[in-house]
Design a protein that fits this description.
CATH topology of one domain in chain B: Rossmann fold
Shape of chain A: globular
Order of helices and strands of chain A: HHHHHHHHHHH
Largest sheet of chain B: 6 strands, mixed
CATH class of one domain in chain B: Alpha Beta
Helix content of chain A: over 70%
Number of strands of chain B: 10
Helix content of chain B: 25-40%
Largest sheet of chain A: none
Order of helices and strands of chain B: EEEHEEHEHHHHEHEHEEHH
Radius of gyration of chain B: 18 Å
Strand content of chain A: under 5%
Radius of gyration of chain A: 22 Å
Number of helices of chain A: 11
Number of domains of chain A: 2
Distance between the termini of chain A: 49 Å
Structural class of chain A: mainly alpha
Structural class of chain B: alpha/beta
Oligomer: heterodimer
Shape of chain B: globular
Chain lengths: 242, 266
């Protein structure tokens, strides 16, 4: 139940705010549109980038997300920023290019952080499903998400068992002896997979996932307002930048 | 392999479970079942007792056609298990696995409970009604939108049971239902089972639990049924238990009026 990263984001996603309450579908469509606009803007369109950042910061505020949480989640973009930081030294007009790339990455990541921090994972998945995302992918992601938690518990137990037998190695030796732990985990997961499949078969699974009847979603007035406002703003951003 | 017992004409309904001389060898050659003959009437509650490795879980997997016997035959509610009957057999037999994490694979409990009925191709309203009913039966109507990893082990066990009940099975087969449950969850789960109207088969080596839930018990050892009778009598026979690596907890006194929700088949 307490697995650091994913636990933290789940707790935040389970809170309540006008943004949390939006239908996952309008959040997905709206934020992905915003990302599409961001990545297609020409280099140096500063005011347009500024407008997009302002929209996102507005959403962060409306969602009552703590800056600390957002910043911590944003660290995932660091490798991309490093890549962008090299541009000024290698490309012609590198400073403008580097800053543009950095902004595009930042806007995209911030949009995804808002989406994932305001939408509990099952609802997010349901949103993608209803938007007709390929079922194979949504099902794989659903399984990953569900069993990552189970695996994390397995790992924690195995580590505890190791430590209970007096295991306290240096980090180097720990790195080496992680091999057998991963091997054991792999075998366990295979067995688990087999049992999960048996259990699914026992409940009538015959090779294709049925449509889910639960988790019905309904577009409300607030959703329409959100999507319309965002669309108008995005069109303005595009028009102004060309 | 021809020792199919003759039909019992007293019963108006076909037996819920009818195993006739069932043998099963795993692909690696291990003979897990050797001529198991067991008949469970509709409405009965039967405990299948036996030490680890006796063939209990293998037996469970035969009841809904996950494993097909290498000898003998299995029928469920009059339907021979296999071929075109498999879908119907799997609807009628609800298998509750030992580890609820093997069963609850969907992002939310409600979605998981809906999985079985969805596979049956029921209309949406009927599915939702069944989900609601199944969750209410296990006392989890408030937790449909929770994710399994946010539930306690006992709650997951009940959710997994709901996931089977939503298929409206006639027989509930539970593999080690009391394993890993703390005393309170164990008692609550026993009460839940006592309140159900289905035929129940409990596979376990938890003898007091078997005594609480089931009026009839069979002992399986090395792939064979070695005893079959009222649970009270089976558990009273200390020598029989000892011969098959089963033991009542020290100090356990059998209370013959203790069984919960004792009902009559019908």
């Amino acid at each position: 139940m307490h697995h650091g990263g994913s636990g933290a984001i789940e707790a935040v996603a389970a809170e309540d705010s006008p943004v949390h309450r939006l239908d996952p579908r309008v959040k997905i469509v709206g934020l992905i549109s915003l990302i599409l606009v961001a990545v297609t803007l020409p280099a140096g369109a500063w005011s347009a980038f500024g407008a997009l950042v302002a929209i996102l910061l507005g959403l962060v505020a409306a969602a009552r997300l703590s800056p600390r949480h957002v910043l911590r989640r944003m660290t995932i973009e660091l490798p991309f920023l490093l890549a962008a930081a090299v541009l000024p030294f290698t490309a012609e007009d590198g400073v403008v290019l580097g800053a543009t790339v950095a902004l595009k990455v930042t806007i995209s990541v911030l949009a995804m952080v808002i989406l994932s921090s305001t939408t509990p994972f099952p609802r997010l998945l349901r949103g993608f499903e209803l938007l007709r995302a390929p079922q194979l992918i949504t099902v794989i992601v659903a399984f990953m998400w569900r069993y990552l938690h189970v695996l994390a518990e397995d790992v924690a137990r195995m580590k505890r068992a190791r430590e209970a037998r007096g295991y306290a190695a240096s980090w180097l030796w720990q790195a080496v002896s992680t091999g057998p732990l991963i091997a054991t985990l792999f075998v366990r997961s295979l067995e688990r997979g087999e049992r999960v499949y048996l259990a699914m078969t026992s409940r009538g699974y015959a090779g294709s996932m049925p449509e889910t009847a639960t988790g019905r979603l309904q577009i409300r007035a607030a959703d329409v307002t959100f999507l319309t406002t965002l669309t108008v703003l995005l069109i303005l951003v595009v028009v102004v930048s060309v | 392999m021809s020792g199919v017992p003759s039909g019992n004409s007293r019963t108006p309904r076909p037996p819920a479970i009818d195993l006739a001389d069932v043998g099963y060898a795993y692909p690696d050659g291990h003979q897990a079942l050797r001529g198991v003959t067991l008949r469970v009437q509709a409405g009965e509650r039967v405990a299948v007792l036996g030490p680890n490795g006796a063939g209990k879980s293998t037996l469970c997997l035969h009841l809904n056609g996950i494993l097909i016997p290498t000898g003998g035959s299995v029928s469920v509610c009059g339907l021979p298990v296999g071929g075109k009957n498999l879908k119907e057999v799997r609807r009628r037999i609800g298998l509750v696995f030992q580890d609820p994490d093997d069963m609850l694979f969907m992002p939310t409990v409600a979605q998981d409970v809906a999985f079985g009925p969805s596979n049956l191709g029921l209309p949406e309203d009927e599915i939702l009604a069944r989900v609601e009913r199944a969750l209410a039966t296990v006392g989890m109507e408030e937790m449909g939108e929770r994710s399994p990893h946010h539930l306690s082990f006992g709650q997951r066990k009940r959710a997994a049971t709901a996931a089977v009940l939503s298929m409206d099975p006639e027989v509930l087969v539970l593999d080690e239902p009391s394993a890993s449950l703390d005393p309170r969850a164990r008692r609550e789960f026993g009460e839940l089972l006592a309140g159900l109207s289905q035929t129940i088969v409990v596979v376990t080596h938890d003898l007091p639990y078997a005594h609480e839930i089931c009026e009839r018990a069979v002992i399986i050892d090395r792939g064979r049924i070695v005893a079959d009778g009222p649970t009270d009598e089976i558990l009273d026979d200390v020598d029989l238990l000892a011969a098959h690596d089963l033991e009542l907890p020290h100090g356990f006194v059998m209370d013959h009026h203790h069984r919960q929700g004792k009902r009559h088949a019908g």
